[in-house]
Every structure is written in structure tokens, then in C-alpha cells.
Amino acid sequence: MNVTHLYCSACNQSYPPRRLYNLCDCGKPLLVAYDLDRAASTLTQSALSTRPPTLWRYAEVLPVDDRVNRVSLGEGMTPLLRAERLGQALGLKNLYIKDESQNPTGSFKARGMTAAVSMAKELGVKKIAVPSAGNAAGALAAYAARAGLEAFIFMPKDTPLANIIECQQNGAHVTLIDGFITDCGRIVAERKAAEGWFDVSTLKEPYRVEGKKTMGYELAEQLDWQLPDVILYPTGGGTGLIGMWKAFDEMERMGWIGSHRPRMVSVQAAGCAPIAQAFASGLSAGADIANPHTIASGLRVPRAIGDFIMLDILRQSHGTAIAVTDEQLLAGVKQLGIAEGIFAAPEGGACVPALQQLIDQGKVDRSERIVLFNTGSGLKYLEAFHSK
Fold first, then answer.
1. Segments in 43-108 forming alpha helices (H)
2. pLDDT at residue 287, rounded to an integer
3. 360 by DSSP, 3-state: which?
4. Among 33, 57, 183, 195, which one is most buried in terms of CB atoms within 10 A?
5. What is the C-alpha to C-alpha distance for residues 28 and 44, in angstroms, rounded to an integer?
């Protein structure tokens, strides 16, 4: 539609559109560029009022050319809820929760997979593979099934059972690995050429981030085109964080918002906090985590390929990165449930103690507009809460 080219997030090398790509020749993630002047001629703030409540309302800044290739389950336009009771408990006046658990397959991963699978379909892919700690696998299985494509999924053996069953019931080929998500990714990389798989690993193809960036568009739209002051986002691979920052830039270039940006806060688990450790140490790439451990499986990513992009965003925005313990994040889930009736994933629960840290350190003003992201449903993690 309006895609002009793809470009490398590190070396800025340019690639022509309408072809299958994984990484740049330099080994770093590729991103999608648009003719935003052309997009803005039909994608206007007023036009959105007549469009359906899915992320495809922003079609002019999404990569699919032919609408017949959109593989959709109704994803996007999740609620932005004012958290009055939780805000009162924390002494905050303007606290919100963006509840991504209400997406198809119960998590924000639906956003990335609708875009990635739609593009795979449009470009003639028949077999798709992914390493996953859980929710990305469930989303890929669902969208691949809807598109009539084969899905090959590799997950650690300790992946939440709900994700494993979800993938199997949607017809995916599921392999459980005695190891971490990085081990699963290595298997996909080693076998994809011989097996004819297209690899849709986090940031190892350019389109999942395009689906995830719609969280940024929605947030602006739901707040009447005024971005919040602070965003707390649970970070594993970091596609959502990177995508939202990209969306803010696109919206400014289309004249929808000004130059104000939220302070971005990456929330990680203490047992696997490569971004938090690297940020604290002043590094430009994530720390290496030799033995990652956390009950929040979506945060168990020992090394993210987009780590340098995330760290740059945190510093550009004058944000920070925070790690919380498993005990704290599970307590955060309960606090969210009691105060707001949201049964959050452990990753979403992690944002509550992280916010408390910011308050205790005087890093947020109590009148600022703050948004916490709950990235998934607690129903997908029942083992995490067993006998807790």
C-alpha cells in the first residue's frame, strides 16, 4: 500500500519492499518505512470514527497491500481503563491500564502475528516457524490456522500448559525443548532452510513490530491525541516497546501529535533482566543472562536481538528499566485483581511493583498520566498461581 522500503535499524541499509526478509546483511532487525504524506491523505483522525474497532483501522500504515490477505480474528482496540482504585492505593491521580488480555488468544501477541501471518500469506509463504515462551506460539498457531498455513513451533518444556494445548488444538506442529527460548531459536535457525520454513521470530522478520506498533496509535487515539507522561511496559523481546516508539514518530510526521514523548519504562523479572542490567551499567547492548529464571515466561528472554534499540529508546525518552522479583510480580497480579478486577498475566503484574519503585524513588509525579500495560491474561498461567 504505502510501503516505500525496508531499512536496517543499525546500519540503515535499504531494501526493496514486497520480498521475504529476515535480518539485514549485518545481522540486525529490519523495519518498514512508509510514504506518510500519502498515508495521511486518507488516514485522518476524523476518518477513524467510521472504521471498525480493530487494529486494521490503521491500514495505511500497515504493510499488507491487498485487504483479502488480512488474516484477522478481530484483534486490537483493547480497552484503556482508568484505574481509580489502584491509583488511590498508590496515591496517583491519573493511572490507566491498557488491557491487552482482551485480544484474540488472550495476549498482545495477536497484534504481531496478524501482521506477520498476513504478510507471509501475501508473499506466498506456506510454512511458518517460531521459537516461543508461550503466547507468541499460541497466536501464531491461531493465525496460521486461519490463513491455512502450517505452523512449526518450538517451546521450552516449562512453557505454560495452556499455551502448549492451545497450539496443539489449533493444529500446529509442536516441539518441546529442554532449554530456553534462545535454544528454540537456534533450532529454527538451523533447520529453516532445509525444512522450507519462514522464521517469524521476534524482530527476525520486519512485520510483527508493525502489528505491535498499533498499541501506540490506539493509546494516542484513546487519550484524545495526547500521549501519557509515563508508560510501563513488561519487556522480553521488546517488540511492543520498539513498535510504540515507531508509532509515535509516524504520528508526529503525519501531524497528529507533537514532539512530547512518554518516559518509557522497561519492566523485567529479577531472574532475567538483561535490559535493566545493561541500562544500569550504561551499556548499549543487553547483558548476557546465563541462567534465566522467572515464573513470568514472557520475560524469560536472556538476550533480545533488539536490545540496542530498546536501550536507545529508554535513554531518548529519559525513561528507565526496572527489575522485580517473582514474589513482587505475583503480588502485583493480586493487587490488580483486587483493585480493578483484571486477572493479569505475571508480566502485567510486574508493572505494579515497578511503578511502586518509581513512586518511592520520586521518579514520577503523582499528577502525571501513567499507563501500565497488561500484556496477557492470567488464565494462560494458572500453574504460576497454584498454591500461591
1. 84-90
2. 81
3. helix
4. 57
5. 33
Q: List, in sequence order, every beta strand (DSSP E) within the chain.
A: 3-8, 14-15, 30-34, 80-82, 94-99, 127-131, 150-156, 173-177, 198-199, 230-234, 263-269, 320-324, 369-374
**Positions in the chain whose pLDDT score sits under 50:** 388
Residue 302: per-residue pLDDT? 92
Cell of 305: 536481538
In a domain, 53, yes or no: no
Short-list 101, 317, 96, CA closest to 222: 96
**381: domain CATH number?**
3.40.50.1100
What pTM did the predictor assign? 0.96
Whether the CB-CB separation of 22 and 204 falls below 8 Å is answered with: yes
Q: Which residues contact 12 (CB under 8 A, 6 or more apart)?
A: none
Q: Which residue is listed with cell 533488539? A: 306
Q: Which residues pair with 153 in a beta bridge?
A: 130, 174
State how many domains the chain has.
1
For 331, half-sphere exposure in the C-beta direction (CA atoms, 13 angstrom radius) is: 9
Rounded to a whole number of angstroms, the CA Rg of the chain reads 19
- How, if at all, do strands 320-324 and 369-374 pair? unpaired
Count of C-beta atoms within a 10 Å radius of residue 158: 17
Domain residues for the domain of 235 are: 80-107+209-385
The answer to the question of residue 39 being in a domain is no
CB 381 within 8 A of CB 160: yes
